[in-house]
Design a protein that fits this description.
Strand 3 and strand 4 form a beta hairpin. The longest helix is centred in the first third of the chain and has 6 residues. 15% of the residues lie in helices and 39% in strands.
Length: 66
């Protein structure tokens, strides 16, 4: 993913971060915009920006919109 790109969350790999994804509104079907990729991924969901660590970010699979 590249900075500024929009995508839709397709799948979140189950595991130890599953509850965190739900709390942060990172749910399948939600549209997100990539704000930053390094050093940690930052997503925008609606009007909220969410930073996650790389391990959590690697469990999020998306479909490209642009």
């Amino acid at each position: 993913m590249k900075k500024g790109q929009s995508c839709k969350i397709a799948y979140i790999k189950p595991g130890k971060y599953e509850k965190s994804h739900n709390i942060l509104s990172l749910l399948p079907g939600n549209e997100v915009k990539i704000i930053q990729t390094a050093p940690s991924p930052v997503f925008q969901v609606e009007n909220i920006q969410i930073a996650v660590d790389s391990a959590m970010g690697n469990n999020i699979y998306v479909d490209h919109l642009e």
